[in-house]
Design goal:
The protein has helices spanning about 25-30, 70-75; strands at about 5-10, 15-20, 50-55, 60, 75, 80-85, 90-95. By secondary structure, the protein is an alpha+beta fold. It has a single domain (about 5-95), classed as Beta-grasp domain (Ubiquitin-like (UB roll)), CATH 3.10.20.30. A hairpin with a 6-residue loop joins strand 1 and strand 2 (about 15-20). The N and C termini lie far apart (about 30 Å).
């Protein structure tokens, strides 16, 4: 994957979509596009930004992104430390 690669991100229950760069976190890309997402620590520990993928893949550049193995397997991710690895459809925000 190229760091200058850009992916489409679709948000649930709205017509909101934005482009996310592989070199930026999803939170940073959303903010740059004018999309407001809940966040606090921005380092993967507080979990305020937790979201769940419907489709696509994300990757992390930190060893421990603040999620359990079960949460990762269920599709949860933290936009503040997650980088897009494909086009994404975000199923929900918050723990559901």
């Amino acid at each position: 994957m190229e760091l200058n690669e850009r992916f489409q991100v679709l948000l649930p229950g709205s017509n909101v979509a934005f482009k996310a760069s592989a070199s930026d976190t999803l939170l940073a890309s959303a903010q740059r596009a004018g999309v407001v997402l809940t966040s606090s620590c921005r380092n993967g520990t507080c979990r305020a930004c937790i979201a769940r993928l419907g489709e696509g893949r994300v990757m992390y550049r930190i060893e421990w992104p603040g999620l359990s193995a079960d949460e990762k397997a269920a599709g949860y991710f933290l936009p503040c430390v997650a980088y897009p690895a494909s086009d994404l459809v975000v199923r929900s925000f918050g723990a559901d």
